[in-house]
Amino acid sequence: MKSVCVFCGSRTGGPAVYSDTTKQLGKLLAGRKLDVVFGAGHIGLMGVLADAALADGGRVIGVIPQSLVDRELAHTALTELHVCGTMHERKALMADKSDAFIALPGGYGTLDEMFEILTWAQLGIHAKPVGLLNVNSFFDPLLAWLDVAVRDGFLKSKHRDLLLVDADPEQLLDRLATARAEKSPDKW
């Protein structure tokens, strides 16, 4: 595993635990020499993540559509900044540049990105591991919904199991690395 794409909010949320955990993840990624791929924003948890990884010598790769650059939302101190045309192009490029994925707390955009990557895994488009960092039990209602979807026959358990969940950033990174190593190289 050489790079991890992190989906996260363009806001920091109320409790400090969200920013604190995001900083911890950024430092861990830099410390493990894993490139950070993210949505290139300088605001919210995106900015917190990038700044923490950069401060610890990490490589941070941002991907952002021109429309968000025009709104002055792009982080300008990244290792690499890729400007694309659309949100669809953004997601595809982020996926191509990543060996694994982590979703942090966020809103619609974060969940859109995470569920698209999970759907691609479910359809066999990729076999890269997907993790959910359940900071402050933020995702508990979503996880309960996924369990109901399995119970009621809308989601197979093997597809529910595509989402690795942990509240500890270090343990989640370990689980992603293990899952990546267990996958057949011909699926990448």
What does this structure look like?
There is one protein chain. Helix 1 packs parallel to helix 2 (44-55). The protein is of the alpha/beta class and 188 residues long. Strand 5 (100-103), helix 5 (108-122) and strand 6 (130-133) form a beta-alpha-beta unit. The chain contains 8 helices and 7 strands, in the order E-H-E-H-E-H-E-H-E-H-E-H-H-E-H. The chain has helices at 16-31, 44-55, 66-70, 87-96, 108-122, 140-151, 157-160, 169-182; strands spanning 3-7, 35-38, 60-65, 80-84, 100-103, 130-133, 163-166.
Overall mean pLDDT stands at 95
Helix content: 40-55%
Q: What is the C-alpha radius of gyration, as a whole number of Å?
A: 16 Å
Kindly report how far apart the N and C termini lie: 11 Å
Structural class: alpha/beta
| Strand ordering within the main sheet | 4-3-2-1-5-6-7
The CATH architecture can be named as 3-Layer(aba) Sandwich
Main pleated sheet: 7 strands, parallel
Large-scale geometry: globular
Determine the number of helices (DSSP H or I, runs of at least 4 residues).
Answer: 8
SSE pattern, N- to C-terminal: EHEHEHEHEHEHHEH
Instruction: Compute the number of structural domains.
Output: 1
Which range does the strand content fall in? 15-25%
CATH domain fold name: Rossmann fold
Characteristics:
single chain, 188 residues, alpha/beta, Rossmann fold, 7-stranded parallel sheet, 8 helices, 47% helix, disordered C terminus
List the helices and strands and how they pair.
Blueprint: E1 3-7, H1 16-31, E2 35-38, H2 44-55, E3 60-65, H3 66-70, E4 80-84, H4 87-96, E5 100-103, H5 108-122, E6 130-133, H6 140-151, H7 157-160, E7 163-166, H8 169-182
Parallel strand pairs: 1-2, 1-5, 2-3, 3-4, 5-6, 6-7
Helix pairs in contact: 1-2
